[in-house]
TrEMBL record:
Annotated positions binding ATP: G132, D133, R159, S223
Catalytic activity of the protein: thiamine phosphate + ATP = thiamine diphosphate + ADP
Residues reported in the UniProt entry to bind Mg(2+) 1: D133
Binding sites annotated in the UniProt record for Mg(2+) 4: D37, T53, D83
NCBIfam families reported in the protein's UniProt record: thiL (TIGR01379)
Residue positions binding substrate: H62, D273, W330
Protein name per its UniProtKB record: Thiamine-monophosphate kinase
Nucleotide-binding among keywords: yes
Annotated positions binding Mg(2+) 3: D37, D83, D221
Organism name: Candidatus Endolissoclinum faulkneri L5
UniProt lineage: Bacteria, Pseudomonadati, Pseudomonadota, Alphaproteobacteria, Rhodospirillales
Length: 333
Protein backbone atom coordinates (compact mmCIF):
# COMPACT_ATOMS: atom_id res chain seq x y z
CA UNK A 1 0.00 0.00 0.00
CA UNK A 2 1.29 3.44 -0.89
CA UNK A 3 1.09 6.45 1.38
CA UNK A 4 -1.25 9.36 0.85
CA UNK A 5 -0.32 13.01 0.46
CA UNK A 6 1.42 14.76 3.35
CA UNK A 7 -0.96 17.72 3.00
CA UNK A 8 -3.39 15.94 5.29
CA UNK A 9 -3.04 14.50 8.78
CA UNK A 10 -1.78 11.07 7.80
CA UNK A 11 1.17 9.39 9.50
CA UNK A 12 3.96 7.33 7.89
CA UNK A 13 2.96 4.85 5.18
CA UNK A 14 3.88 1.76 7.17
CA UNK A 15 2.20 3.10 10.28
CA UNK A 16 -0.97 3.56 8.22
CA UNK A 17 -0.83 -0.08 7.12
CA UNK A 18 -0.09 -1.32 10.61
CA UNK A 19 -2.78 0.78 12.30
CA UNK A 20 -5.70 0.55 9.87
CA UNK A 21 -5.21 -2.42 7.56
CA UNK A 22 -3.01 -5.12 9.11
CA UNK A 23 -5.69 -5.95 11.73
CA UNK A 24 -8.07 -6.68 8.85
CA UNK A 25 -5.64 -9.24 7.42
CA UNK A 26 -4.33 -10.87 10.60
CA UNK A 27 -6.28 -14.12 10.17
CA UNK A 28 -5.74 -14.51 6.42
CA UNK A 29 -2.97 -16.95 5.43
CA UNK A 30 -0.58 -15.79 2.73
CA UNK A 31 -0.83 -12.07 3.55
CA UNK A 32 2.38 -11.90 5.64
CA UNK A 33 1.06 -9.05 7.75
CA UNK A 34 0.74 -6.92 4.58
CA UNK A 35 4.52 -6.51 4.60
CA UNK A 36 5.00 -7.90 1.08
CA UNK A 37 4.02 -6.50 -2.32
CA UNK A 38 1.46 -9.23 -2.90
CA UNK A 39 -0.43 -12.04 -1.20
CA UNK A 40 -0.44 -15.75 -2.01
CA UNK A 41 -3.83 -17.32 -2.63
CA UNK A 42 -4.30 -20.86 -1.30
CA UNK A 43 -4.44 -23.94 -3.50
CA UNK A 44 -8.05 -25.07 -3.91
CA UNK A 45 -9.47 -28.49 -4.65
CA UNK A 46 -9.42 -29.72 -8.23
CA UNK A 47 -13.22 -29.66 -8.39
CA UNK A 48 -13.31 -25.96 -7.46
CA UNK A 49 -12.45 -22.74 -9.29
CA UNK A 50 -11.86 -19.09 -8.43
CA UNK A 51 -14.36 -16.33 -9.15
CA UNK A 52 -13.01 -12.75 -9.16
CA UNK A 53 -14.85 -9.43 -9.38
CA UNK A 54 -14.12 -5.75 -8.82
CA UNK A 55 -16.39 -2.82 -7.96
CA UNK A 56 -15.66 0.88 -7.40
CA UNK A 57 -17.80 3.37 -5.53
CA UNK A 58 -17.29 7.12 -5.97
CA UNK A 59 -18.53 10.04 -3.90
CA UNK A 60 -21.59 11.75 -5.43
CA UNK A 61 -22.06 8.77 -7.76
CA UNK A 62 -22.57 5.80 -5.45
CA UNK A 63 -22.79 7.53 -2.09
CA UNK A 64 -23.51 10.99 -0.70
CA UNK A 65 -20.84 13.25 0.83
CA UNK A 66 -22.55 13.19 4.24
CA UNK A 67 -23.00 9.40 4.40
CA UNK A 68 -21.27 7.82 7.43
CA UNK A 69 -17.85 6.67 6.27
CA UNK A 70 -17.97 3.30 7.98
CA UNK A 71 -21.21 2.60 6.06
CA UNK A 72 -19.55 3.71 2.82
CA UNK A 73 -16.80 1.14 3.40
CA UNK A 74 -19.31 -1.59 4.20
CA UNK A 75 -21.36 -0.74 1.10
CA UNK A 76 -18.22 -0.95 -1.05
CA UNK A 77 -17.56 -4.46 0.25
CA UNK A 78 -21.17 -5.60 0.06
CA UNK A 79 -21.82 -4.55 -3.54
CA UNK A 80 -18.71 -6.50 -4.54
CA UNK A 81 -19.81 -9.56 -2.59
CA UNK A 82 -23.16 -9.29 -4.36
CA UNK A 83 -21.36 -10.01 -7.64
CA UNK A 84 -19.99 -13.22 -6.14
CA UNK A 85 -23.47 -14.14 -4.88
CA UNK A 86 -24.86 -13.70 -8.40
CA UNK A 87 -22.43 -16.35 -9.63
CA UNK A 88 -23.05 -18.73 -6.73
CA UNK A 89 -19.59 -18.26 -5.23
CA UNK A 90 -18.58 -18.36 -1.57
CA UNK A 91 -16.41 -15.32 -0.66
CA UNK A 92 -12.79 -15.93 0.34
CA UNK A 93 -11.12 -12.52 0.65
CA UNK A 94 -10.72 -9.10 -0.89
CA UNK A 95 -8.32 -6.28 -1.69
CA UNK A 96 -9.07 -2.62 -1.07
CA UNK A 97 -7.87 0.44 -2.94
CA UNK A 98 -8.84 3.76 -1.38
CA UNK A 99 -8.31 7.22 -2.87
CA UNK A 100 -8.74 10.15 -0.49
CA UNK A 101 -8.74 13.80 -1.48
CA UNK A 102 -5.31 15.26 -0.72
CA UNK A 103 -6.87 18.30 0.99
CA UNK A 104 -8.76 16.33 3.62
CA UNK A 105 -7.84 17.34 7.15
CA UNK A 106 -9.31 14.27 8.86
CA UNK A 107 -7.92 11.35 6.83
CA UNK A 108 -6.89 9.38 9.89
CA UNK A 109 -10.43 9.64 11.26
CA UNK A 110 -11.89 8.47 7.95
CA UNK A 111 -9.49 5.53 7.70
CA UNK A 112 -10.36 4.55 11.25
CA UNK A 113 -14.03 4.49 10.27
CA UNK A 114 -13.24 2.46 7.14
CA UNK A 115 -11.31 -0.08 9.20
CA UNK A 116 -14.09 -0.31 11.79
CA UNK A 117 -16.81 -0.78 9.18
CA UNK A 118 -14.86 -3.48 7.36
CA UNK A 119 -14.14 -5.24 10.65
CA UNK A 120 -17.88 -5.55 11.23
CA UNK A 121 -18.59 -7.00 7.80
CA UNK A 122 -15.57 -9.29 7.80
CA UNK A 123 -17.05 -10.94 10.88
CA UNK A 124 -20.50 -11.13 9.30
CA UNK A 125 -19.37 -12.63 5.99
CA UNK A 126 -16.38 -14.65 7.17
CA UNK A 127 -13.75 -12.99 4.97
CA UNK A 128 -10.50 -11.06 5.36
CA UNK A 129 -8.51 -8.32 3.67
CA UNK A 130 -5.60 -9.77 1.66
CA UNK A 131 -4.03 -6.60 0.22
CA UNK A 132 -4.64 -3.24 -1.38
CA UNK A 133 -3.40 0.27 -2.02
CA UNK A 134 -3.97 3.82 -0.79
CA UNK A 135 -3.49 6.96 -2.84
CA UNK A 136 -4.23 10.67 -2.77
CA UNK A 137 -6.24 12.46 -5.43
CA UNK A 138 -7.55 15.87 -6.38
CA UNK A 139 -10.85 14.19 -7.16
CA UNK A 140 -13.62 12.59 -5.10
CA UNK A 141 -13.21 9.91 -2.45
CA UNK A 142 -13.19 6.51 -4.15
CA UNK A 143 -13.06 2.95 -2.86
CA UNK A 144 -12.39 -0.01 -5.14
CA UNK A 145 -12.66 -3.59 -3.92
CA UNK A 146 -11.60 -6.76 -5.69
CA UNK A 147 -13.27 -9.82 -4.18
CA UNK A 148 -12.23 -13.45 -4.57
CA UNK A 149 -14.71 -16.30 -4.25
CA UNK A 150 -14.77 -20.05 -4.77
CA UNK A 151 -17.36 -22.19 -6.51
CA UNK A 152 -17.55 -25.75 -7.76
CA UNK A 153 -16.46 -26.28 -11.35
CA UNK A 154 -19.23 -25.95 -13.92
CA UNK A 155 -21.58 -24.66 -11.20
CA UNK A 156 -21.01 -20.90 -11.54
CA UNK A 157 -24.23 -19.11 -12.41
CA UNK A 158 -24.12 -17.24 -15.70
CA UNK A 159 -26.34 -14.66 -17.42
CA UNK A 160 -26.41 -16.74 -20.60
CA UNK A 161 -28.25 -19.87 -19.42
CA UNK A 162 -31.89 -18.71 -19.53
CA UNK A 163 -34.19 -20.67 -21.86
CA UNK A 164 -37.83 -20.29 -22.96
CA UNK A 165 -40.18 -22.05 -20.59
CA UNK A 166 -38.25 -21.15 -17.44
CA UNK A 167 -39.69 -19.08 -14.61
CA UNK A 168 -38.26 -15.71 -13.56
CA UNK A 169 -37.67 -15.12 -9.84
CA UNK A 170 -36.31 -12.39 -7.57
CA UNK A 171 -35.19 -12.36 -3.96
CA UNK A 172 -36.29 -9.83 -1.33
CA UNK A 173 -38.03 -6.64 -2.40
CA UNK A 174 -37.25 -4.13 -5.13
CA UNK A 175 -37.37 -0.36 -5.16
CA UNK A 176 -36.00 0.06 -1.63
CA UNK A 177 -32.57 1.21 -2.78
CA UNK A 178 -33.77 3.66 -5.42
CA UNK A 179 -36.40 5.25 -3.19
CA UNK A 180 -33.97 5.10 -0.26
CA UNK A 181 -31.66 7.40 -2.22
CA UNK A 182 -34.56 9.84 -2.59
CA UNK A 183 -35.01 9.74 1.19
CA UNK A 184 -31.29 10.24 1.81
CA UNK A 185 -31.29 13.26 -0.53
CA UNK A 186 -34.30 14.78 1.26
CA UNK A 187 -36.65 14.38 -1.69
CA UNK A 188 -38.85 11.92 0.21
CA UNK A 189 -39.86 12.11 3.87
CA UNK A 190 -37.52 10.91 6.63
CA UNK A 191 -40.36 8.72 7.87
CA UNK A 192 -39.05 6.25 5.29
CA UNK A 193 -35.60 6.08 6.88
CA UNK A 194 -35.68 2.28 6.59
CA UNK A 195 -35.32 2.73 2.82
CA UNK A 196 -32.34 5.05 3.25
CA UNK A 197 -30.79 2.29 5.33
CA UNK A 198 -31.31 -0.18 2.49
CA UNK A 199 -29.62 2.25 0.09
CA UNK A 200 -26.62 2.81 2.35
CA UNK A 201 -26.22 -0.80 3.46
CA UNK A 202 -27.41 -3.40 0.93
CA UNK A 203 -27.60 -7.08 1.81
CA UNK A 204 -25.65 -9.38 -0.54
CA UNK A 205 -27.51 -12.67 -0.94
CA UNK A 206 -24.44 -14.87 -0.56
CA UNK A 207 -26.05 -17.89 1.07
CA UNK A 208 -28.88 -17.84 -1.45
CA UNK A 209 -26.45 -17.56 -4.37
CA UNK A 210 -24.61 -20.66 -3.18
CA UNK A 211 -27.88 -22.58 -2.96
CA UNK A 212 -29.01 -21.37 -6.38
CA UNK A 213 -25.85 -22.73 -8.01
CA UNK A 214 -27.54 -26.13 -7.70
CA UNK A 215 -31.02 -24.93 -8.70
CA UNK A 216 -31.08 -21.90 -11.00
CA UNK A 217 -30.14 -21.50 -14.65
CA UNK A 218 -29.22 -17.84 -15.22
CA UNK A 219 -28.69 -15.16 -12.56
CA UNK A 220 -27.65 -11.55 -12.01
CA UNK A 221 -27.75 -9.13 -9.10
CA UNK A 222 -30.01 -6.10 -9.46
CA UNK A 223 -27.59 -3.21 -9.12
CA UNK A 224 -28.39 -0.94 -12.08
CA UNK A 225 -32.16 -1.40 -12.22
CA UNK A 226 -34.48 -4.39 -12.61
CA UNK A 227 -35.23 -3.75 -16.30
CA UNK A 228 -31.64 -3.09 -17.33
CA UNK A 229 -30.26 -6.06 -15.42
CA UNK A 230 -33.02 -8.31 -16.76
CA UNK A 231 -32.03 -7.17 -20.25
CA UNK A 232 -28.49 -8.49 -19.66
CA UNK A 233 -29.94 -11.96 -19.12
CA UNK A 234 -32.23 -11.56 -22.14
CA UNK A 235 -29.43 -10.37 -24.41
CA UNK A 236 -26.85 -12.93 -23.37
CA UNK A 237 -29.36 -15.79 -23.40
CA UNK A 238 -30.95 -14.62 -26.66
CA UNK A 239 -34.45 -14.77 -25.28
CA UNK A 240 -37.27 -12.54 -24.00
CA UNK A 241 -38.01 -11.91 -20.33
CA UNK A 242 -41.61 -11.10 -19.41
CA UNK A 243 -42.16 -9.45 -16.02
CA UNK A 244 -45.55 -9.38 -14.32
CA UNK A 245 -45.71 -5.86 -12.87
CA UNK A 246 -48.43 -6.91 -10.46
CA UNK A 247 -46.26 -9.65 -8.97
CA UNK A 248 -43.30 -7.45 -8.06
CA UNK A 249 -42.42 -7.76 -4.35
CA UNK A 250 -42.26 -4.35 -2.69
CA UNK A 251 -41.85 -3.36 0.93
CA UNK A 252 -44.53 -1.64 2.98
CA UNK A 253 -42.66 1.66 2.79
CA UNK A 254 -42.37 1.51 -1.00
CA UNK A 255 -46.04 0.58 -1.25
CA UNK A 256 -47.02 3.64 0.76
CA UNK A 257 -44.85 5.92 -1.36
CA UNK A 258 -46.28 4.56 -4.62
CA UNK A 259 -49.80 5.07 -3.25
CA UNK A 260 -49.03 8.77 -2.79
CA UNK A 261 -46.63 9.21 -5.75
CA UNK A 262 -47.68 6.88 -8.57
CA UNK A 263 -45.05 8.42 -10.85
CA UNK A 264 -42.36 6.73 -8.73
CA UNK A 265 -43.45 3.25 -9.87
CA UNK A 266 -41.08 3.58 -12.81
CA UNK A 267 -38.22 4.27 -10.41
CA UNK A 268 -38.60 0.94 -8.64
CA UNK A 269 -38.17 -0.73 -12.04
CA UNK A 270 -35.17 1.30 -13.16
CA UNK A 271 -33.51 2.83 -10.10
CA UNK A 272 -31.28 -0.05 -8.99
CA UNK A 273 -29.25 -0.30 -5.78
CA UNK A 274 -31.33 -3.26 -4.55
CA UNK A 275 -28.64 -5.95 -4.89
CA UNK A 276 -31.26 -8.67 -4.94
CA UNK A 277 -30.79 -11.79 -7.07
CA UNK A 278 -32.79 -12.05 -10.29
CA UNK A 279 -32.69 -15.58 -11.69
CA UNK A 280 -34.38 -18.08 -13.96
CA UNK A 281 -35.16 -21.72 -13.20
CA UNK A 282 -37.08 -24.63 -14.63
CA UNK A 283 -40.73 -24.83 -13.43
CA UNK A 284 -40.05 -28.11 -11.62
CA UNK A 285 -37.51 -26.34 -9.38
CA UNK A 286 -40.25 -24.42 -7.57
CA UNK A 287 -40.21 -26.55 -4.42
CA UNK A 288 -36.41 -26.35 -4.10
CA UNK A 289 -36.59 -22.57 -4.51
CA UNK A 290 -39.29 -22.22 -1.88
CA UNK A 291 -37.38 -24.51 0.48
CA UNK A 292 -34.20 -22.45 0.05
CA UNK A 293 -36.12 -19.26 0.79
CA UNK A 294 -37.71 -20.78 3.87
CA UNK A 295 -34.46 -22.18 5.28
CA UNK A 296 -32.53 -18.95 4.64
CA UNK A 297 -35.43 -16.70 5.71
CA UNK A 298 -35.26 -14.82 2.40
CA UNK A 299 -38.47 -14.02 0.49
CA UNK A 300 -38.29 -15.27 -3.10
CA UNK A 301 -40.99 -14.32 -5.59
CA UNK A 302 -41.85 -15.59 -9.06
CA UNK A 303 -42.24 -12.43 -11.15
CA UNK A 304 -42.42 -13.67 -14.71
CA UNK A 305 -41.21 -16.06 -17.36
CA UNK A 306 -38.73 -16.60 -20.16
CA UNK A 307 -40.13 -16.63 -23.71
CA UNK A 308 -38.76 -16.83 -27.21
CA UNK A 309 -37.85 -13.46 -28.68
CA UNK A 310 -35.72 -10.65 -27.33
CA UNK A 311 -35.71 -7.83 -24.80
CA UNK A 312 -37.71 -7.29 -21.62
CA UNK A 313 -41.44 -6.59 -21.35
CA UNK A 314 -43.32 -5.48 -18.23
CA UNK A 315 -47.02 -6.31 -18.12
CA UNK A 316 -49.71 -4.61 -16.04
CA UNK A 317 -52.41 -6.36 -14.00
CA UNK A 318 -54.37 -7.05 -17.19
CA UNK A 319 -51.42 -8.56 -19.03
CA UNK A 320 -50.97 -5.47 -21.22
CA UNK A 321 -47.43 -4.29 -21.97
CA UNK A 322 -46.41 -1.11 -20.17
CA UNK A 323 -44.81 1.60 -22.30
CA UNK A 324 -43.78 4.01 -19.58
CA UNK A 325 -40.07 3.40 -19.33
CA UNK A 326 -37.77 6.21 -20.43
CA UNK A 327 -34.44 4.77 -19.28
CA UNK A 328 -34.19 1.06 -18.36
CA UNK A 329 -31.64 1.67 -15.63
CA UNK A 330 -28.41 3.30 -14.53
CA UNK A 331 -25.44 3.49 -16.89
CA UNK A 332 -22.16 5.37 -16.37
CA UNK A 333 -21.58 6.30 -20.00
Amino acid sequence: MNTLSKKNDLIDEFDIIAKFFTPLAKDAPGTFGLLEDAAILPTIDSHQEWVVTVESIVCNVHFLPNDPFELIARKALRVTLSDLAAMGAKPYGYTLTIALNRDLSDSCYLLEKVSHGLTIDQAEFGIHLIGGDSVSTDGPITLAITAFGITNKAKALRRSAAMPGQDLWISGTIGDGALGLQVAKGILSKQYSDLAGRYRLPQPRISLGCRLSEIAAAAIDVSDGLILDASHIANQSKCRLVIDGGALPISESVSRIIADHSEMFELILTGGDDYELLFTAEPEAIQKIKQAGYELDIPITRIGRVDSGEGVDVLDHNGIKLNLLIEPGWTHF
